[in-house]
Structures are given as C-alpha cells and as structure tokens.
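ENTRY TYPE: paired fold submission
RECORD: A
CONTENT: sequence, then structure tokens
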Amino acid sequence: MVKNPSLYEINTRVWLREFDKDSEKAKISDVPISFWQNLREKGFDYIWLMGVWETTPSLVEKCCFQSFLVESYSRSLKDWEKPDVIGSPYAINNYEFNQQIGSADDFLKLKKSLNEMGLGLILDFVPNHFSAMSEITKSNSEIFLHSSRELVDQDPTTFFQSYFNKKFFFTHGRDPFFPAWTDTIQLNYFNPATIEFMTNILLKISNFCDGVRCDMAMLVLNNVFNNTWRGIIDESKFPKPAEEFWKIAIDKIKSHKKDFLFIAEAYWNLEWELQQLGFDYTYDKKLLDRLKDGKPFEVSEHLRADDQYQMKSLRFIENHDEERAVTSLGIEKSFAAALIISSISGMKLFYDGQLVGKRIKLPVQLARAPKEKEIKVVQKYYDKLLTIFNDGTFKNGECRQLEPIQVHPDNYSSYNILAWHWIYKNEIRVIVVNYSSETSQCRIKFSLPQNFDSNDVEIYDVLHDKGYIRTKYEITDSGLFIELGAYQGHIFTFQ
C-alpha cells in the first residue's frame, strides 16, 4: 500500500452506457481491460464503482418525482424522460449486485484483474438505511427503527407504514439537518441485532472488493444517532450501546483482511473521531469549502493540522454530491485547487469526467448524462498533473509545509501563496501555489538533501517545463524568490 494513494470515482450506472454494444446495455464485463490499464498508467491506486447494488425500481414512481428532484433533472438533462429516472443507488434493496451491471462472478473477476495490475476496488456501504421497500424488512424487521400510527399521522414525511406488513410502522432514514429520505428505511443502531447484521453485511462485501466508501458514516455514531432519534427509540428496550458500531465492525473486518480500506463520508467536525475508530480515510469537505471561499490563509491553516489527520484525509474538489469543479471554481481556479489537493498528503479523489472538464452535476437518480464537449485545456492540464504525481516521492514521501516570506515589508502578497515540500530518500519536490487573483511574490527557504554538493542548483519546473539555475545560498539562506500570476503554480525538482 502506498502512503498517499489516489482514487477514481465512477457513477457506474451512467458510465456503462459508454460501452453499449448494438443498443444492448453494457455490463461491467464489457469494459475493456485497456480502460483500467489507462487509469493505472495515470497513477490511480483505487477505483470506486459507485452504485452497483440492487435497488427497488418500484419506489421510483413513489419517491423520485418530487418537485425539487424534477427541477434538478431539468437543470442537468434538458431532454430527460421518465425512463431516465431509475432511483437513488443509495436506497439499496439488499447487498446483491444489480444484475443490469454485473453478477457476483463478474465482480470477482474484475477484482482479480484490477489487483493483478496494481489497482484496488472500492464499493459502497450504506450504514444508515436500506430502501424503504427492501426485502430485508420482511425477514429482519427487528433491525429497523420502528415508529407508530400516531407518528405517521403527525409526520408522514419522516414516518411510514410498512409496504409489506400493515401492522408495522417504520422511520425513513435522514440527516438531522434535512427532511427524511422517503425512499429509505432507518436502521436502529441501538439494537445489537442491527450491529451484528450490518457487520455480517460488511464481511460479505469484503469478498468482492478491497475497501468500502461508507455513506454518511457519522450518522450511526452513538451520540449522533441518539440526538437524531431521541424520543423515537424505545430506550427501555434499546439503551445506548457502550461501544461504537464502527469500532466493532472495522475491527472484525480487519481481523480477516488487515489491508481492507474504510473510507468515511463525514462532516460536522467528526472526521477525527471516525479516524480514531479505525477509518483509514475521512472526507475533507472543509478543505473544499475553503478552496471555494478562496482565502489562502484559511487553506494554509487547514493544512497545518496534525500529520496523522492529514494522512487520513480524503481530498477532492468534486464528486457525485458536489458541483463540477470547472463550474464551481472556474477553470483557472480549479487548476490551482487541483494542484493543491494533488500535492498534499492523504488520499486524493478524482471523479469521472473531471479530467476532461465536465461541467454538469448529475442527480444520482438519473441513468443518463447529457453529452458534453471535452475541454482540451483541462484534459491537457490533468494529463500533465497526473503524470507528475505518479511518482514515488509523492506516493511514499513525507510532506511538510513551507513558510512564504515577504519580499518587502510593504508587500503582503506572500499571504496569497501556499508552499510545501516532499522528501523521499534523496529526492525533494517543492510545490508553490498562488491561490489568489493577483500576481504575488514571496521567498521560500528550505534545506536541500545532503547529496547536493555544488553551489549551483539546477531547478526544473516540471509543470511548465522550464529550468533555472540558482545558488544553494539563495535557497537555504535568503530564500528562493517566487513570482506567480493569478492561480499559477510551480512544481520544482532539483539537481
């Protein structure tokens, strides 16, 4: 395992349309091996196939045509029709593979092929809920959060009557800051049977992949669950557990497969807590928010957090839940943001379409995306960026922040500049980024590895293919002079 891996996310149900043959819907087995090899050559270490599990199509008509969803469909896909709406991949019926995507054997073969070329496979795990019409509600109704007729009458958005057994009343899954997801049913994590059931689901999933991305992982933390559902839980039957589900489940899986990855979608400053419970990586949404705000000082301060926290953070500037980077940031600023997230420690996530400049965020309920022209300048930039960072120094080295120094007491533009260096064995790489809309200057002071004997140092900016000669004294004593235009950057190597 590399210390600072990269992850490529694919919206599987939509993406497979690229491989349709003779109007027959393609399956995962139809994807040519060259597609995966190309991703490996670009430096990716893991592939996340989002949305491969079986859902319940009968819920689509009931839950997927609310006005706010219809508006999102029209924004992203002007010519959408009802058959394009196939429901959320996060309202799972059961952890069986969607047969329109592939069989269990297909995924075992895919995992084997990916592993042989040095790639790991990541799949979804949705801990908080299942589909409201999941077949599991028939066989294991006890693991779900029950409600009552009175609650359904008071709040039919949050509570509902079972679709299969009219004597049962359940609760829809929810984020406590938003209305309930009406296509889901909430699991009861204060019931030991639920913890055992979901741990066994994870054991099953672990046979088909090398890790899981855990949807809204913080929702099942004991305190969060209690605060969300206080008054609904029967505390006499289900007291608050002494141990967290994640601690139990992660320890169990890793006792069988120590290198199995757990990635948490996490918010609300609960990332550190989840890391302490065993997660290998947690979403770094706060970094994205600060990159969008465009305040270099806040970005710099964020990246000064504890090293272990940094190394367990998952960096991204877009994914299936976020706006496309070239839309939310603009092309130039998105390049600078991509350079930042690519060149710091931790796991880096890139979303399918990001590398060619796709602009439209697609609702997860849709099976079809609009046709978009690739932006050549974006494709060229990412090709170069990924080539540069597919390097042992960045994959296995140590990253340390550098302090930009003012070039003159009256020149405050150094505060616009972010800088850090990577050291691995006798190699050093220095990254400098002007994360502002104005030309900025600074000096950067750092030590060179001991193998640099000559006074003259050859510096090469691999991002712009440009070389410089500077003295060792300037670098180590006064500091290397830097001047960068708006949202520009350097990636320096040294000889």
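RECORD: B
CONTENT: sequence, then structure tokens
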Amino acid sequence: MPYLFKSHITKILILLPLVSGFSFLAAPLFSEEIPQSEEVIDLSLEGTIKYAFKYNKDIQIQEEEVKAARAGIVGARSIFLPHIDVDSGYSYNDSIIRFSPSTKPKKDPGIFTGYRNDFQFSLAAKQSIVNGGANIANWKEAKLNLRVQEETLRAKKLDVEFEAKRLYYGLLFAFETERINLELVGLAKAHYENVKSKYDHGTSSKFDLLQSEVRVSNYIPGLIKAENNVDLISAELNKLIGFNVHTPIRPTERLRCKLIRIKEQKFLKEAYARNPWMIIKLLGIDVAKWAIWVARSTILPTLEAGMNYGFRSQNLGNMFNYKHNIWDAGATLKIPVFDGFYTKAKVDEAKAKYAQADLSKVNVVDQIAVDIRQACLDLKQSAAIINSQKDSIKEAREALKISEVGYDNGVTTNLDVLDAQVALSQTEQNLAEGIYDYLMARASLDRTRGRQYLKG
C-alpha cells in the first residue's frame, strides 16, 4: 500500500473518535451551511483594480467630497454677483395719521404716513463692491480646495490600486508556491515508489526506503500550507473587490516580471512633480497664504451698494402705478477703527498655520526621498535574486536527473537524490519570491511616483 494512502488512513482512524466525540458540541456553533463554491472567475490585474475602485467606500466618500468642493466654488463666486430679493406683505394698522393736502399731489401722500390696509411689494438689489480682499481670498481658497480634494481622491485610488496589486500578485505567488510544493511531493512520491520497487527486488536498503518515506511525509505540511495560503489570499481578494469570499478565482496572468533600469534621480524628480500628497502639501501652502488675506480683511474698509424699488398702497388692485411706487438707492462705507486686537490675533494664527504648512511640505519631501530610495534598493535586491536563480533552475533539474540516473546505477546515494529534489524546489521558490518582491517594489515605486495603472 503506498505510503501516502496508509498515512492518511491512519490519521483518519486516529481522529475519527475525537471528531465524533465532539460533534455534539460543534453542531450549534457551525449550524449554518458554508456557501457553495460558485463558478470559477477569470480575473486579470486590470479587472481586479476596476472592481476595487467600484466597491471601495473610501473612494466613494472622496468622490462626494470633490462634488462638495465644486459646489463650494459656486458659493464663493456668488459674492461677486448682485443679490436680488423680492418682498411682499400686508399689514393692518389700527391707527394712522391722515391729512388733506390743499392741492392734488403727484403721488398719494398716504404712502408716506401709512395705510390702515397696507399692501407692500418691493424689489431689492445689493452688491458688495469692496470687502477688504476677503471675497477674492475666499474664492481662491475654494478653487484650491477643489484641487486638494481631487488630489486626495487620486491618492486614495493609488492606495487602493496598490492593495489590489498586493493581493493579486500575492495570489499569483501563492499559486506558484502551491505548484512548487506539489511538484516536490510528486517527485518525492515517485522516488519513494522507485526505492520501494528496488527494495522489493533486494537492490535497495531498508534505510533508503524509510528515508524516502519520511521525506514524503515531511513535504506534505508545506503543500497543505501552500493550499491554505491560496484560499486565504483568494478570500482577502474577494473581499477587496466585493465578491463572496468563497468565490473561486483564477488569475489570467502569471508570476513574471520585466526588469527596468533603475534611475533614482529621475524617479525622485517625477515623484516630486506627480505624488498626490506632495501636491496636496504645496496646495496647502497656497491655501494658508490666502487664509492670511481673509484674516487681514476684517480690519480693512468695506463698501456695499444697494437699491430698493417697490409699491405700497391700501388698494391691492390699484397698487402697481406711478402714484404708489417708491425707490431708494445708496452705498455704505464701513471703516473699522478698533476691534480689540481681534484681527491681529487671527492674522498671527493664519501666519503660524502658513509656517506649519511649509514645514509639513518639507517632511513630505524627505519621506518621498526615503520611499524612492527604499523602492530602488528593493528593485536591485530582487533583480539580483532573479538573475541568480533563473539560470540555476535548469542546472538544478539537470542535477536531479543525474542523481536519479546515478542512484539507479548505484553511483549516487539515496540522499543525493533527495537533496537534489530539495535544491530544485528551493531554487524555484527563491525565484518566485524574487519575482514577487520585484513586482511589489515596482508597485510601491509607481504609487510614490503617482503613476496609476488605470487612468481616471
């Protein structure tokens, strides 16, 4: 009986009493059925990112912030346009002053002393002419805020895109690790069957047989762990893209990469120009500058003009004629003299925030430089591993064949074959890890440089 079959039967026989003994305890906790697996879904990296964008709540919230910022520009711009109001009303006056003029007036004098039944209708227009520069500053701030919100949205998309890449590349790496472990177990089983056949014919020792059998057993946990990693990363990826966690996913791409030339200074220059957080900090300095103007405006003169035109009469049906119309126009100039040092305090506060914004920008500049350096070092390290391992796989496979032929001919030992199997598996694993690390370094570099896989 093959070793694996015997081993699994033994484990089942050992665990069966324990499982049956605890079944009455487990039933209430796991009464719900696990959802059945759906049809396998083929998924590309681009599709993963699109789904992640579609279902990510942070992106949806930030999109609403952008809409609010656009509305804020309209609100700030409204101060430059005249504000027009229409008023109408009625009041009953118990006591009014009456007089009879000696001559017929051009207009009904009652309009100046009031009516018992007083109907009113007026059209008022008001325009701010000078407001100490606050109107312009608020408008500039609103425009800058829109750009800040747009860059924040781009930053959130870069973060979500990076997470999608991490899980998608992680799934590719998990599948490759599963394949490597499955191949190792297959090689070990095939060698065990070969040793067992030789042992049955008296050409192999009991030690070789037991040694081969133990190696197969030792490789099983690694395969199980690799299979579990595939399931776990698939569940995390499903959660990110809004699928049921039990949905089986089949990546349409393979774990491979194309090496790029590392130009750290070029990468750094691009990051300073395109990194959204860098742009946000620069915009924050401009916002703080205009905030100083807003704070200073409270001590500067303001000028406002206005005009009213309306009708007032005791007869609603005869109100709209030249005898009942009234109008007035004027302008108001306000010159602040002393506000208890309120303006000085607000200006000092705004200047402090301006200095804080500038320091914050310097901090981001330094962090970007560190992130670019880290990404470049990771790229160099991963590229070195890839270059050292990709050619070694062919040599490791050749060494394994030689060891197997040598063992069949009595030239090499059983341990030589087992070591050659491990060497091949380790070389493939090192290459897979190197490619995964290189892909993640590229993803980190793209995020720092502000490069999106998907535009928009």
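NOTES ON RECORD B: The beta strands are 41-43, 83-92, 117-131, 249-251, 302-313, 325-334. The longest strand covers residues 117-131.
STATUS: closed
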